[in-house]
Amino acid sequence: MGTGSDRTREGGPGLLSTWWDQFRYTTVPLSSSNNTRRDKQPRWKTWLPHGLSQDPEEGRAGREWIKGAVVCTWITATILALNSIMLIVALIFAYRQSSNRGQFQMVALYTGQCALARHSATGIHVVINVLGTILLGASSYVMQCLGAPSRSDIDRAHASSRWLVVGSFSFRNFAVMSPKRKVLWGLLLLSSTPIHMIYNSVIFSSIAELESGNLLIPHDLSSTEALVDDTASRESFRARVGLDPAVVQQRIFDGTFTNLTGKECWAKRADDTLYSTLVYVAERKYFHNTSSLWVDGALYPSDHNYHPVEPVYWSYRGDLDIGLYPEVPVLHCLMDESRQRCQLLFSPPIAIVVIICNAIKLSCMILSVGVRRRDLFLTLGDALASFLTRPDPTTRGHCLLSRAEVAEGLRLRGYSALPLGRHQGHLAQAPSSTQSSKPSSVSPSQSAEFRHHPSETILISAYGSPKPIDPRPKQVTPRQRWYHAVSWPRRIILLFCYASCIAISFALLFHGIGSDPFHEAMSIGFSQYARSYVANTNTTNIVALLLVANTPQLGLSVLYFLTNGAVTGMLLDAELQRYATRRRALRCSWPRGPQRSTYYLTLPYRYSIPLLAGSAALHWLVSQSFFFVYVRQVDLAQRLISDELRGCAYSPLAIFITIWVGLAGMMVVVGLGFRRFENRMPLAGGCSLVLSALCHPAAGDAGAAEKPVMWGEVSPDPAGTLAQYDKRRVEERLVVVEGAAETGETGAATAARDGTMEGYPHCSFTSMEVTAPRLGQLYA
């Protein structure tokens, strides 16, 4: 009995054995810690997409870019929440006022003092600009991640004789983007356009021009002396001033009126939004036994602080035509600023459009985080690290390749990498009309040359039509200027846009001033309404006018985009050139070992901060130069008149300053372009072919990507010293010269005919010793 039981327990097919084995031995999955960590995640994380719900440190090899994209996603979600809260609060606050019932296109949040309404709008615009800049920055980062090529994208492009751009976005990269990434990138771009154009128009202020009553009183008027003394005069006073004489007299003595000097009165009198009642104070001798005189508001004072006064009493009924008006010297003024009717307005439709665009951005970012891509090249350091770890055989023998040559149509001998398998001794080439399809054996030197690549591959020729050009040795060029890093079409387009914007601004400025004296036009302050400086528009629709007023903002954004691209291109090559000056670690997006951390993508802070500050200043100046105005008319009884003005006004002073700031920006960009690079390294301009050509270190230079590197002339024999290499290089060069003298061929022609670059030195990024390339020396 016991034996049977033991047999069963030792592995027989009995139920007890099965249960006992399961009890004794439990299968523990290798990812149990990860599962435990996932199980412990909050429930709300399970609702998020894969990229957002995972731990940022979990399974992120090559996908570290998701961390930045996740941060941008949370920032966008926070701004969306703030915008939604502000919309709800504004609607609740607005619709509590009975005057806003039934209104939706625009509602009033505040009615009262013009300065408070104007300053509130300015403060809210500052907050909106900050939020908009952050939102657009987050969107730009995700767009950069979507448009940045990966190593696999570049390998496929090089294999088909194409190239991509690293470090800045280019529409050339669209060719390798999947349809999903193209749609997400396009939606992020399109959703930015309304934010550029209408975000600032969510809040704006309106102006109320008050019909004012002007009167003249004696300087020694007492609180017991009535301004008028009969019923007829009282009715006339009320009709021309808008208030009862007793009320005006009470306000004169209770401090409601503001006491102004003659100059202050002269300056403020022209602004119809500030006051509803203006009282001039003069000596008693001009009053002819009365306590007040009416001042005709249609007549303008002289520059000597004299004001025309109609020589009639309040009791006079009818007009008196005496030809000339007498002049009365004014001692000072009293102004009633308590009845201003300016408004702070809010546009719910525009706010809803902004929130919809914000929600589209958030959705696109969430979907972008879920895109499974690895080894993105966001900066030059990312590309250099990858090419140093796994050199690209496509550009072997082109160590001095430049973007200018690539742009001229140079086709390299392309290769595509396939699994090596067991055929480790052959180099398979694609058949052609002049070449046998039979694989040729690889020489020991070639085998050693290819063996140091991490992934075992054979190289299959991928060139076809047009026929590629064989590698040819080249000489280093003299130091070039920064503008050579930007293609000539981009330079022309950028300068044309700058010149066009400045010329159009000058033309509009002088057309707007017209025959007015220049100093008078310059006296109109920033974003200050003046009836003579209102543009002639054919519409009164508020939304259409807001779009027209913000159209220059869109043009300025395009100009910033072009400027940023040009400066980025110059700085990319400036950074690359520094590696030929001294040894330094690579600057990567996700540093490893001694590698340095990155800036915000490409631009150093000493350039990016002034560029952003200049852009923000220009956007603000443009908003103060050309702006939407909404002017309402208020009569003496504080009733709104149906006649109102909706249009776009401009400030000559703000336009003038904007022009000079734009000129200064253009001069700074041009000045940067005329700087010279520090060394003679070929200009890459972000071209992936050039970057890969710069990274062909010696076979023994393993792990160079995670060490301080330098670009220069390298020794093909890592075991030899540079002195030995220099000696051998001189001897080889003498042999080449002697052979060329006998055959009449140049060294480059001999190398091209023989199909070999042996005998020519080589330049590359490397962690080993290098020497500076020499002028006149051929390199391959």
UniProtKB/TrEMBL annotation:
<feature type="region of interest" description="Disordered">
    <location>
        <begin position="427"/>
        <end position="450"/>
    </location>
</feature>
<keyword id="KW-0812">Transmembrane</keyword>
<feature type="compositionally biased region" description="Low complexity">
    <location>
        <begin position="428"/>
        <end position="448"/>
    </location>
</feature>
<feature type="region of interest" description="Disordered">
    <location>
        <begin position="31"/>
        <end position="58"/>
    </location>
</feature>
<feature type="transmembrane region" description="Helical">
    <location>
        <begin position="609"/>
        <end position="630"/>
    </location>
</feature>
<protein>
    <recommendedName>
        <fullName>DUF6536 domain-containing protein</fullName>
    </recommendedName>
</protein>
<dbReference type="Pfam" id="PF20163">
    <property type="entry name" value="DUF6536"/>
</dbReference>
<keyword id="KW-1133">Transmembrane helix</keyword>
<feature type="domain" description="DUF6536">
    <location>
        <begin position="65"/>
        <end position="219"/>
    </location>
</feature>
<feature type="transmembrane region" description="Helical">
    <location>
        <begin position="492"/>
        <end position="513"/>
    </location>
</feature>
<feature type="transmembrane region" description="Helical">
    <location>
        <begin position="69"/>
        <end position="95"/>
    </location>
</feature>
<feature type="transmembrane region" description="Helical">
    <location>
        <begin position="350"/>
        <end position="371"/>
    </location>
</feature>
<feature type="transmembrane region" description="Helical">
    <location>
        <begin position="650"/>
        <end position="674"/>
    </location>
</feature>
<keyword id="KW-0472">Membrane</keyword>
<dbReference type="InterPro" id="IPR046623">
    <property type="entry name" value="DUF6536"/>
</dbReference>
